[in-house]
Amino acid sequence: MEKKHAVAIEVNGKILRAELPARLTLVDFLRDEARLTGTHVGCEHGICGACSVLFDAQPIRSCLMFAWQADGHRVTTVEGLANADGSPSVLQDSFCETHGLQCGYCTPGMIVAAHALLEENRAPSEAEVRAAIAGNLCRCTGYQQIVDAVLLAASRKK
Amino acid sequence: MTTAFRYVGKKRRTKEGPRFAAGRGRFVADIALPQMKHVALVTSPYACARIDRVDATQALAVPGCVCVLSGEELCAAVDPLLVGVDAPLVKRYPLANGIARYAGEWVVAVVADSRAAAEDAAEKVQIGYQPLPYNVDAEKALDAAAPLVHPEHGSNLLYRRQFVWGPVAEDFARAAHRLSFRARWHRSATVPIETFGVLASWDAGRQILDVWASIQMPKFPDQTARALRLPGSAVRVHFDVDVGGSYGVKRGIKHAVLVGYLAKKLGFPVRLIEDRLENMRGGDMHGPDRIFDMEVAFEADATIRSLKIRALDDVGAYAGRAPLQLGKPVGAIVGPYRIGSVAYEPIAVLTNKTAQEAVRGFGQSPTNFALETALDRIARHLGMDRVEVRRRNLIRKDEFPYLIPSGTTYDSGDYHAVLDKALAAAGYAELLATRDAARAAGKLAGIGIATCLEPSGGNSAFEPLFNPKNETTTWMDSCLVRVDLSGSITGVMNTSSAGQAHETLVATCVGEILERDPDSIRVVRADSLVALPSNSPVGSRMAIMLGGAAAGAARKVRERLIAIAAHQFECAVEDIEYRDGHASLKGAPAKRLSWDQLVEIAHRKFHLLPPGVEPGLQEKFVWQVPTGGMLPTPEGRIQMYPCTAFEAHLVYVEIDRDSGRPSLQRYVCGHDCGVMINPQVVHGMTYGGIAHGIGAALYERFAYSDTGQLQSQTFMDYLIPSAMEVPALRIVDHCTPSPLTTFGQKGSGEAGYLGAPAAIASAVNDALAPLGVAIDELPMTPHEIWQRTRGVRR
How far, in Å, CA of B761 to CA of B2, rounded? Predict the structure, then answer.
C-alpha cells in the first residue's frame, strides 16, 4: 500500500482532514476526495487554467500542486466564491449577464482568475483583464464576453 | 420582422449560465458511481507495427488492477465501427486489431480501482511490436509502391470522385484569364478544454447498458449498440450530461464501445476520462488536412467564370464520418459568388496518422480559405482592389433564391449590404491609410478580407452523395412539450449540448408560441430510450431544427388549448383569441378561460374536452430538415443544407519583423444569419469561432515528424490562442430572414470560424506583399512568417 500523509487543508472555509498518498494532486483531492467538482481538469500540465483555485488568495493551478503541499493552507474553489447565502457573487452574476460562458468548462477557472484580479485591482483596464485571464484558455467565447463580464463586475462593485 | 416577436431576438440570459458560473455543471468526470473502475490506455509508439505479444502478468500484479484488455479479445467480441464511405475493409475498432496503424493508437486498455492505479499498471504491460513500413505523406501514399495502411482495402485511396457541374471546359477556354495555385490547410482541430470522457454501467438484471458521455454525435446510441452487438433498446444514453466543448469533434464511438464492453464484461461501472496525451494523439479528433489545387478562370473585369478544385485530404489511419467533410462543401462550393461552372475532385487518402474527425464547419472553412485565396490572387493579378473583386462577383440580393451549379439553392441574403456594413464599421478608407502609413514607417502591415458562407440546418445529404449504399434522406430533430397539472411547461430535448445554450433556445421558442415567459419554462433532456429522434447539434442546425421542433410542438399545444376553449364557448376555433396563455371569445372578453383553467380541463375534466381530443397536455413534433429529402442526381447534384448565413471579415494586422509575430489590431465581422433567436448567444459563438479561426490561421497544428510521430501533443506545442492573441472583436449584425424556417432564423454554430482563417491569411499576405512574398499555407505560424521574410528584409 502507498504510504499516506495526514493533512489539514482549509477548503472554502472548512478544515478538511485526510490521509493522502504523496502523489495525489490538489485538483484530484478537491474533486475526488472533497467532491468539489466545480474545479475542472483540462490539460494536467499547467497550461489551460481550468483547474485554477485560490491558494492563500493567490490563483494557482491545482494540477501542478500535490495535495499535501496545501497542508495548513487555505484553498478557495469556485464553489467558495458564491455569496454566503449561496447566491451568485457579483462576478458570477456578471458572467451570466454578459454571456461570459458557453460550455462552462473553463468558467470556474476564469472566475477564479478574474476574482483574484478584482481583489488586487478594483478598476482594471481591458488590457489588464486580458493579461489576468491570459493563463486560462477558453475555446467557446473568444474571450470577448468574458472580458465584458469582468469589466462589468468591476463597475458594479464600485 | 424581428419586431413582431415577444421573446425571439431579445436580450436574454441563458438558462445554463447560473449552474456553470457556480461551478455546478454536471460533466461526465463529475459523475461517480459506486464501485466504479477507471481506464488507462497503452498506446503504440510506432507509426505502424504488428502487435506480436501482449504480456499483462506484471500489470495484473499492480494493486488495484482488475483487467488488462487486449485488442485481440475486444476485436473478436465487437463489430467494427461505422465507416462513412463505402470502404467496408477499412475496419476500425476501439483498440488496434493486430496492427497499430498510427503512433498513439490505443493498443491495450487497463482497468483499475483508480486512474492512478490504472496508469501504474499500464506502465507494466509488455507489448512485443514488429515495426512495419508506414506512410505519412498523403500525396506519396497514392504511389503504387507506398505501404498500405489497410492492406485488405487494397489501396490508400479511400474515396475519390470527379464532379463536373456545368460547362467547365468551355468556360475555361473562353475566359480571358486563368490562374492556378496550391493552397495548403494543415491538420488542426477544435481541441475542447474538456477531453472526451465516457462512463458505462451494465445492469445485468434489466440487461441495459447505461452510458453517460461527453458527446456530440449523430446516432451515437445506435452505433454504440450495433458495435456491441446489442439491441438498440439495450443501450441507454443519458443526454443530461454537460459537454465541455466539442465544436464537432466529440464523436466518441470508440471510447463508448470500449468502456461499454468493459462494463458488461466486468460487472462494474467503468469510466474513461482521456488525459490530454490520450486525447491529442489517440482521441481520433484531428481535423481536415488538405492540399487544394485550384484553377480559376476569369475576365479582365474580374468576373469569375469557372473553378476547378482538387482537394486531397489526409484522413489518417481510419475513417469514420471524416471523409464526408469533403462532401459538405459541395453545398457551397462557389462560396457567395456567381460562378457558373465548377469541377470538384475530392480525394480522401489513408496515412499512418491519427484518424480524422468532424471539425466545426465540416470541411467548409478550409474550402472557404482556398476560395478566398483565389479571390485575392485574382485581385493581385488584375491590380484591382480585393473588395471590388468581391463586390463584382457576390450574388446580388435580387437573385435569391439562387441555385448554384452543384445543385444547392441558397435561401436568402444581402451580401453587398453586409460587406458594406463591415467596411463602414472597420473604417476601410481610414484603415487603408493606417496601413500605408505603417508601411511608410517601415512596418509590415496588411488588411485582410474574406466574404464567406456558413451553410446551416445540417441534413447530412453528403452521406448518399459519397456513398450510394447510404440512402439517408432525413436528418430530423424533435421536441416534446408538456404542460403538467400545475400548469408548468417543460420542453424535452433529445440530445446533449456542448455550450450552445439549447435549453435557452427551446424555452425561448416555446415561450414565443405559447406566449409564456421563457424563464418559467423548464427544459430537460430525454435519455435515448425515451427520446424522440434527434441527429445531435451538428451542421449549425439546432436554431433551425431544434428551435423549429420546439416551436412546432408548442404550436400544437396552443392549438389544443384553443380547441378546448372553442368547445367550451361553442364557437369555431377561429373565434378564439389566445393571449398570454389565456383563451377568450373574440368580442366577448368575459368569456375567458385562464391558462390554469384550460390546463385543469385538459388534465382532469374529460367531460369538458372536445370529442376526440386526448386527455393531458403534451405534444411532440418531429421536423424534417426544410428542403431535404432527395437523393443526389447521377451528376452528383444535391440540395445540401437548407440555409446559408453570410459573414464578411475585415482584419488589420501588423507583423513584428524580428519575431514574425502578427498582431491583430482591428477585427470586424459583418454577419447575417437571419433572425437571431438570442443575439448574445449568436455573438458569443461567433466570437469563439473567430478565436478558433485565429488559432487555425496562425498557431495550431498537429505536426508529424517524418517517422510518423505527432510532435504537438501538449498545450506547450499545440498552441491555443489566449486572451492576448485574440483581439477585441466587433460584430456587425444584418438580418435577412430565411423563408424556410419558423422564425426566419439560420444556423450560426460555426460562424466566425468559416471566414476568420481566410481573412487572416489575406491580411498576412497583404502585409508580406511589398516583400514579394506570399504564404498559401495555414497555419502561418510566427516562425513560418519570419522564415519567409528572412533574407528579403530591407
Answer: 35
